[in-house]
Design a protein that fits this description.
coiled coil; Nucleotidyltransferase, domain 5; transmembrane; alpha/beta; membrane
């Protein structure tokens, strides 16, 4: 049985991308908060008018319930925005610390054990806020045909790789494959941490030319909330479990 050669995912080059994604999510949540607050205020005004007009008690009860729902949604949006802002501040500080340490290590051409641990700590904190998925396409020549073995993992620092069948290179076939669930891949990609997700796609040289790029394009259409990051041809050895 072919054993997979493990490699550590280095998210350091992606930290800036994460910061941009966090900013976008915070901006969206801020807009949702404004909309929720506006709705709650409008419901409060309507409730006051109905009370003044002494309307039907049932209508007043319905409006009161709608007002309570709008207020709860506004509070939830406010809490979500606070969490996103806190995460953004925390990660920005961690990023600056990591940059400084990396520059110092580069200047001395060394990377200390403490620096490695610090980097792992920052990445672990990052993964508390984001779901990061890795997808790899491992090509195998079977006679005159290339079989594109697919695998993925949902925990970059320590997760196990899971097979997702044979990926079809033709556009229409690839689309149908994803529509049928992609051998479990689609369900896995739906399980995100609060919608904050990045998906990294790579292939090896044996896989069909640009098949990873085709998969990226399909995933962008199917998962617009994901940040899809294509690494192209991997520099390390791939060996998806069969």
């Amino acid at each position: 049985m072919k054993r997979r050669r493990r490699h550590a995912l280095d998210l350091l080059p992606l930290l800036d991308v994460f910061m941009v994604v966090l900013f976008v999510f915070a901006t969206i949540q801020e807009g949702q908060l404004d909309a929720s607050a506006h709705t709650a205020a409008a419901m409060e005004r309507e409730l006051q008018q109905l009370r003044a007009q002494q309307v039907d008690p049932a209508e007043l009860a319905r409006t009161r319930q709608a007002h309570a729902t709008a207020t709860a949604e506004a509070e939830a949006a406010r809490a979500e925005l606070a969490r996103a802002t806190e995460a953004q501040t925390e990660l920005r500080a961690a990023l600056e610390q990591l940059r400084t340490a990396t520059e110092q290590a580069a200047a001395t051409a060394t990377t200390s054990g403490a620096e490695v641990l610090r980097r792992q700590e920052v990445l672990a904190r990052l993964l508390d806020h984001f779901s990061v998925f890795e997808i790899e396409i491992d090509g195998e020549l079977a006679g005159d045909v290339v079989v594109n073995h697919c695998c993925y993992r949902t925990e970059p620092l320590a997760g196990a790789w899971r097979p997702c069948g044979a990926l079809l290179a033709a556009g229409a076939e690839l689309q149908d494959w994803l529509a049928e669930g992609g051998a479990g891949l689609v369900d896995a990609l739906r399980r995100t941490r609060g919608g904050n997700a990045m998906t990294i796609v790579r292939q090896n040289e044996r896989a069909t030319w640009r098949v990873a790029r085709k998969l990226e394009e399909q995933l962008r259409e199917r998962f617009p909330e994901h940040k899809i990051y294509g690494e192209g041809v991997a520099t390390h050895s791939l060996a998806c479990p069969r």
